[in-house]
């Protein structure tokens, strides 16, 4: 795998790629907004500028924040919008086919937050953030899952924003079977906390208890009185709430927080498909005062100075098999739209990934 | 003033006191809820138990949080409710008339968070938190204003919750002519910030600029498009928002926060007279994530370990005349209801106090 054939070295290959045809201000994006097209990419070394590489995509990370780059407006995450008619990009794993940067050789496996959702492409080498040792014994998709955005987001929430989390804390995690939730719950358990999660199906309730070690969990589609559910699962109140959904669940949590509770805000998926004025308002923020509660939003990109600490801890957990990962792998670049939409329908378990090659 | 007359030593005096006749779940409390009655208090030393004192009230501090003790339900501040038919209490200054605690002598001026809203009363001496040097040159009401709850709340918000505030920060303060606002704005100016406030009348706009040194201010009754107002007054965004009002203004602020902004939540007076489900919901909390914003509620009672640092700094500012105080003094215990109601009508400027004696 570390070398490409002589024939490929000057080939022109067909590459399928997804581009933003129209912004989707509301609702889940459809084929009206995201379209697949085929372009031709020359693999000849002299076809690319200095400090560029030609990559082929191996894995693409599907994360809910991508939705916020498709609205055509500021939506609260302030992510830069994809340009119309340009290929969309995401966190991913690629293989270097040709390189005009001496730091990267043919066959290198690399990570970038700017992997185009395409089969082949040319990228400035400064967009690559890490070269992977493919012989380290860690499956490649783990680099965009346990060791990627969701693992890092879980770690920042639990270990940094929660200051770090204290053993014995009563911890609630929403979207608990999602990519961030599965890691956050396991990290909190490793820190000696009692952890309860909410998720969207009975199957996922069972899974997060059995495979991710949650002490308890509930299905928010069947236990629809969130206030009653939280009374039941948190008789001693909530010390830490890692919020992935916002809206009504956040409001319910605020009626159950203990003094000095911490609420790391990781995502608010309940609102991503609505303009902000149509989102559910949280009416009981006064509780933050009465209980001395800290609520803090975070973008993982703002904590890159801690990435080394995170990677060291998580790689150690991985090697000691203390962290389980559940991946939902879609095969083929053509599955991008389907896999993106699946993030918003409670249908997935764990980390959603596209295996391109 | 330091001794009471021989005749008084065994007198029985009449004392007017306010008691909670009925809870007021919504709206501003009226004479249906708070009533004045006259009781008799013996000033004879042997009429009180050991470790008790007989006080006469000098000044009572009127603070919006008192409202939350009159609802008969949990409202988010979680303050203990006044008992029905019992006298209400507040932060205040009193004079010791008789004492069965060797730490307190007749004539001592004392501070307590549990001063009954009454002319005379018997109190356990452990409810007293501080003895004042009446010759220190600081007017007595300042001990419940600059050096009391509002000064301390402003200091905790600016110096602790804002971590502390950084010079050059763009600072917004709501209810800026209120007791907390006037101190918070001045403290932020002393720290080298640019400070803008919102308040409820043109007179108060002028006052906070001229007397409290705010760089700018606006009247939220006339500039009712808060979003437009904040665009105008904060062309470079908001770094710190000390929130005293909550609701619609908080929501508007969240559309103008800069990255890593801090939002100390001190109070949410816009909601105090409503049950929480009727309060205005904040729909754009997602902005906290996109801009890495910390929003943190605080009760001053949770920061008493910092009171010494606060008092030292504020007394120094007071002596150097770097902090101005504006007090609205109501005369006579019979003004309690009127002065309480004034907190919710935009009619007051600065700290509201009752001078009882």
TrEMBL record, chains A, B:
Keywords: Oxidoreductase. Its EC number is 1.3.1.-. Pfam families: ADH_N_2 (PF16884), ADH_zinc_N (PF00107). It is an enzyme of class 1 (oxidoreductase). InterPro entries: ADH-like_C (IPR013149), ADH_N_2 (IPR041694), ER (IPR020843), GroES-like_sf (IPR011032), MDR_fam (IPR045010), NAD(P)-bd_dom_sf (IPR036291). The keyword Oxidoreductase applies. One of its GO terms (molecular function) is 2-alkenal reductase [NAD(P)H] activity. Residues 30-354 form the Enoyl reductase (ER) domain. SMART domains: PKS_ER. This is Putative oxidoreductase. It comes from Rosa chinensis (China rose). The lineage of its organism: Eukaryota, Viridiplantae, Streptophyta, Embryophyta, Tracheophyta.
């Amino acid at each position: 795998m570390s070398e490409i054939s002589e024939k490929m070295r000057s080939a022109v290959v067909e590459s399928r790629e997804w581009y933003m045809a129209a912004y989707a201000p509301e609702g889940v994006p459809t084929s009206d907004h995201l379209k697949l097209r085929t372009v031709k990419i020359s693999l000849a070394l002299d076809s690319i500028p200095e400090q560029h590489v030609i990559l082929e995509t191996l894995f693409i990370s599907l994360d809910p924040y991508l939705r916020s780059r498709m609205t055509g407006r500021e939506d609260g995450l302030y992510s830069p919008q994809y340009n119309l008619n340009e290929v969309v990009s995401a966190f991913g794993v690629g293989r270097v086919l040709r390189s005009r940067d001496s730091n990267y050789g043919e066959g290198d496996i690399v990570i970038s937050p700017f992997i185009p959702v395409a089969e082949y492409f040319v990228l400035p080498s400064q967009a690559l953030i890490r070269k992977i040792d493919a012989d380290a014994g860690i499956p490649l998709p783990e680099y965009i899952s346990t060791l990627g955005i969701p693992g890092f987001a879980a770690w920042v929430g639990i270990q940094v924003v929660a200051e770090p989390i204290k053993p014995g804390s009563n911890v609630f995690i929403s979207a608990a079977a999602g990519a961030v939730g599965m890691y956050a719950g396991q990290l909190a358990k490793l820190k000696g906390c009692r952890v309860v999660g909410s998720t969207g199906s009975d199957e996922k309730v069972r899974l997060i208890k059995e495979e991710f070690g949650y002490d308890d969990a509930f299905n928010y589609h069947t236990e629809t009185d969130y206030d009653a559910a939280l009374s039941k699962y948190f008789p001693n109140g909530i010390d830490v709430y890692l919020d992935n959904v916002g809206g009504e669940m956040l409001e319910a949590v605020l009626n159950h927080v203990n003094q000095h509770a911490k609420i790391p805000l990781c995502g608010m998926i309940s609102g991503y498909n609505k303009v902000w004025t149509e989102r559910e308002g949280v009416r009981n923020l006064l509780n933050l005062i009465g209980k001395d509660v800290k609520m803090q939003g975070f973008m993982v990109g703002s904590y890159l100075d801690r990435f080394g600490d995170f990677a060291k801890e998580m790689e150690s957990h991985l090697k000691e098999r203390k962290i389980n990962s559940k991946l939902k792998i879609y095969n083929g670049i053509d599955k991008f739209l389907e896999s993106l939409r699946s993030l918003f329908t409670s249908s997935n378990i764990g980390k959603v990934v596209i295996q391109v090659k």
